[in-house]
Amino acid sequence: MQPVYQAVLRSWAIPPAATFALALTALLYLRGWWLLRRAGLPYLPSWRAFSFLLGLFSLWVALASPLDTFSGFVLTAHMLQHMLLMMVAPPLVLLGAPLIPLVRGLPIFAAREFAGPFLNWSVANRIGHTLTNPACALLLMGGAMFAWHTPALYELALASASWHEVEHACFFVTSIIFWWPVVQPWPSRAQWPRWAMVPYLLVADLQNTALSAILVFSDRVLYPSYAAIPRLFGFSAQEDQAAAGAIMWVVGSLAFIVPAIVIAVQCLSKKSSQMESISARKRGPSSLDAFLMVSQRIPILSCFVQRKWNGRAIEAISFAMLFVLPGLCFAGLLASGSSDDDQVVRLRATTGAFTVAVFAPPGDFASGPTNVSVLVQDRTTQETLLDATVDFTVHPSADSKAPSPSVRATYEQSENKLFQAAEVNLPAEGEWTLNISVQRNSEHADFSLPLHVVKGETGIGFHWPYLVILIFAALLVFAYLRRHHAPKIPSLERSVSIL
Known about the structure:
Strand content: 5-15%
Distance between the termini: 91 Å
Order of helices and strands: HHHHHHHHHHHHHHHHHHEEEEEEEEEHH
Number of strands: 9
Low-confidence stretches: 275-310, 491-499
Largest sheet: 5 strands, mixed
Radius of gyration: 28 Å
Mean pLDDT: 82
Oligomer: single chain
Shape: globular
Number of domains: 2
């Protein structure tokens, strides 16, 4: 295998907060699934647990693999990432019937005081019933696909890591809603006949075909960022766009048409129709009321739904500790990840035998340490050169001869292993110049990047993830107090009731 492709395969960007959240979700599901299986519940065979874990793993691969690292450079990689988020992970997660196992996997106090009442809240019932209506689900996913693939929103996601995460969350959530009527995870109840899922999926395929055809047959590059970015693998931005559209066309069509064929065959089979009616009778009258109905038949579940515990204070304290520790860990990981600067192309130049692209945070530079990355390519072939030596030197623009220490860039400091990166220290505000020295065998070239440095922020800032955790904790306390609030009986009414 060529060194360039080896470097690509090593370019994993593992998100700590998302990895922690997915691992915690997997543990909760496995705990609930094991307890329900031990209680003899027949609706959760082993393949459902495997499907759920495979769905979480595919979601993690979409967020952590080289597909995410190169999503800003290669539209094809970005499209494959979107296919995992929309066509692979959601149906696999739903096939695991995650609702009841996740609730059962929670601590007893959380399941009894929060999850159970929320699932049986009339407002939650109405919202869930509306969102999972096939007509609403089809519009939501189609709208999300077309909206985020418009040039304005797509460029916004490419320019900002935060908006990129919002885009991913929007794709995954709307796809969960879309695939819900198709998979119909236990114990939910279908709102439309089963045969209606065939035209439902075919309409979704038409939406996917229309969008992918725009990418394939467009005579111009729809997203300017891919035209301005260095080409890493030898094909043009136009060819990359056509390949991405073809992937969306083929993978999306298979994801929609194959389930439609399977459902059509099931509906045409008399035996499968009978089994479906039996399964529907077993599911019960309501998707969200099924939690309490199941709990009444299973002693393990009924103990935290109906039974009054003597040690409720101990349960509450235990839950508080379990909530605080993962909450602080998640907020800390999210805050550390959000501190990473977005990087854009700040310099593209050709000197001697080299073409370099320098990536740094957008806008003015802040004094202090700043991450700078550089891509070195051959001037003639545009092949990525992995054996070049790169040194960064910073000096005041007014005195280019002023001595300053140099920093050697390395591949270890960069998530993208085609890039070399280093942390450059900008001593103070003012006008500075970053000198990039590139050496390969006997060939040498120097590049200069003017820097306008402003005063960096000092002190310890309050990161927003901690505020989110505090607000969520306050909402839980409010919900608990409101649920257990007993109206005081006036003294007169109390005396009358006694009489």
